[in-house]
Every structure is written in structure tokens, then in C-alpha cells.
Amino acid sequence: MLKNIKKNNIKIIVNNKYVQYNMFISKELEAGIALQGWEVKAIRKKKVNISKSYITIKNNSAYLIGALFQPIVACHPHLVYDQMRSRQLLLKKSELNSLIGYSKINGFTIVVCCLYWKNSYIKAKIGVAKGKTKHDKRLNIKNKEWKIKKMRLLKIKNIS
């Protein structure tokens, strides 16, 4: 009946480029975030920074720490906002147990890859990541440059 409705209407709000450049992501999950009203307004205005954020697990629940939400002062200038508060992530029990298992392994950290709208909900793509060495970063750059060079060569051959 209502065929024109998009089921997974996803719009990315913020990408965490720091994680993509400095870490290998081995597993990704989708989580909801428990936010206050002013934080949602800040997200709508894209006044969010998640570059140095990470996730910790306390009392069998996951929390987002280090994310900076800049309040819009015009809304309520008399209120005091805690910009760096820890925000609870909404996960299924099985997902939470797998994250607990990964967090106990040495070298793995749980980070936020991006924030996005899914229909009318704000979701976070979280990943279990391991840090890259300088050699890994250089190798990654070489591979990207080779792909670009290869595409140029193929384009020249197709033209002539």
C-alpha cells in the first residue's frame, strides 16, 4: 500500500575520521543513544565532535565518553549544560556481552565510527578497533595512491 516509504532512511551526521585513519575496525554494531533535548538540537545544527570519544562499560551498560555536544545558547540561556557528560548507549544484551568480551582482550578499544539519523532516531555506529602502526598507515596510503594511479591508467587506455 505505502510503497513510497523508505524503510532505512539513513543520513550521516558526523564521521569519525580519526578512527578510520588510525585504527583497524574488526567488528561494527549499531547502537541507540540516550540523549537530552538540547543535545538533539545540537545534533540537528551539527555542533557535535566525536573525534576523541570512546566507549566504556560500567554496571552492565555501555557509555559514550568524550563526545562534545555544543549547546545552542539561544534555546535556554539560564540552564547549565554538561557538554562532556557520559551518555548511555542502548544495546541488546547479546551485543553488550560481545563488547564486554572484546574489551577484556588486550589492545582492543571500543570507539564511535559515526553518528547518523535512522528514520527519526539518532544512532551510533560503534566499532571494536585496534590501533595501527606507522607502517600500517604508510601501507594504507600507498594502496590508495596505487588505486588512483591505476584508475588514471585505465581511463587513458579507454580514451585512446
TrEMBL record:
Alphabetic keyword roster: Cytoplasm, Membrane, RNA-binding, Transmembrane, Transmembrane helix
In which broad location class does this protein mainly occur, judging by the first location in its UniProt entry? cytoplasm
Query: Do you know which Pfam families this protein is assigned to?
Result: SmpB
PROSITE patterns to which the protein is assigned, alphabetical: SSRP
Matching NCBIfam families: PRK05422.1, smpB
Q: Which family does it belong to?
A: Belongs to the SmpB family.
One of the GO biological process terms? trans-translation
What superkingdom does the record give?
Bacteria
Q: Where in the cell is it found?
A: Cytoplasm
Which HAMAP family does this entry report, sorted A to Z?
SmpB (MF_00023)
**Ranges that cross the membrane:** 61-79, 99-117
This protein's name: SsrA-binding protein
Q: What does the organism's lineage look like at the top?
A: Bacteria, Pseudomonadati, Pseudomonadota, Gammaproteobacteria, Enterobacterales
What organism does the record attribute this protein to? Wigglesworthia glossinidia endosymbiont of Glossina morsitans morsitans (Yale colony)
Please indicate if the UniProt record lists Transmembrane helix as a keyword. yes
Q: What does this protein do?
A: Required for rescue of stalled ribosomes mediated by trans-translation. Binds to transfer-messenger RNA (tmRNA), required for stable association of tmRNA with ribosomes. tmRNA and SmpB together mimic tRNA shape, replacing the anticodon stem-loop with SmpB. tmRNA is encoded by the ssrA gene; the 2 termini fold to resemble tRNA(Ala) and it encodes a 'tag peptide', a short internal open reading frame. During trans-translation Ala-aminoacylated tmRNA acts like a tRNA, entering the A-site of stalled ribosomes, displacing the stalled mRNA.
